[in-house]
Each structure stands twice: as C-alpha cells, then as structure tokens.
Amino acid sequence: MTTENNVEPSEKNQSSETIQISELGNQFILHWGEMGTRWGINRTVSQIHALLYYIGKPANAEQIADTLQVARSNVSNSLKELQNWNLIRITHMMGDRRDYFETSLDVWQLFHTVITERKAREFDPTVKFLSAFLHDNTFSNNEKEAKERVYEMLVLMQTLSVWGDEMLKMKPETLTKIMKYGAKIKSMLGIYEGK
Question: 3-state DSSP helix/strand/coil percent for the chain, to nearest 5?
Fold first, then answer.
C-alpha cells in the first residue's frame, strides 16, 4: 500500500531520517569545504564528500541537503560532480527506491583517486600541449632561449609524471615508508643543501 505521492511508508521514513552530526563533525565538514575552495573545488562538493566520509555510511540526497542546509538542486549538481571525479558511488537500500551515495573510507584509495583524476584533467593535457607546441612550431632565432625554457618545463613535467605514476602503483604501506624516510634517504645519498 502506498501513501500520498505514491511513496511507500518504509521509503518515506528512511528518506526523512536526519543525519545526526556533532559539533566536531560540523567543524570537520566546514573546514573541508573551506579547504576545497582553496584547491579550486566547489565548497558544497567538498562538504558533501566530507559528510559522507565522516558518517561512514550511505546517505540520500534529501538527507544530505537537510544536514548541510543547502538547496536540493545544489546537492544534485554536487553529487554529479563527485561521481565525475569517481569519489562517490551510488548504492541502494532494501525497500527504498531512492539513490544513496557513499564514498570510500580508505584514505589511501581517496588519495589515489584524487591524484589520478587531477593528473588526467590538469597535468596530462599540459604535457601533451607542450610536446605538440615544441614539435609543431618553428621558433625564430630570437626565440631560442624561450624554446629551451619550454623544453625544460616539458622535461620536468614528464619526469614528474613518470615519478607520480610509479608512486601511485605502490602499496600504501610502501609509500608511507618512503614519505617517512625522505630525510634519511636524502642524507644517505649525501645530499647537502647548505644555505
């Protein structure tokens, strides 16, 4: 039997459940939203991801909108953006036809996803452009130094790209060890940068 608006009772109850967030949780979500804007990501997109990570369980769009006190249309657009970044996935609850959204709770998997997506969107196109730019353009005699600078930039970016790809292939525990031993590796190689 259905009730008003053809919504089954169990579905209506589940979708209207509010997510209880403590003051600490609110601080985390607000801060993550602020950090997102500094990284060039929409505040609501960042807050939704922070909310899903913090609560550690799926939530539907209505719950997210109610909890964050933002417009449902803003939530819908932000959820699409998070899906485009592969940071959330859709899941379903028994007896509820609505879409629920969840994120990985593995911080290393999230790190891997963000780096992979940013590299594909921002870094790789620049490497491709610089390579084509150097190959397809004829530089005048007055531009030889400019060409050298562009080439140096390309080499640096290609080197960083290869290094980044290799880092992303490593297991989290290996990568953690490398990061922890960075200073020790530097001293083992006898690198000293006196000022």
Answer: 70, 10, 20
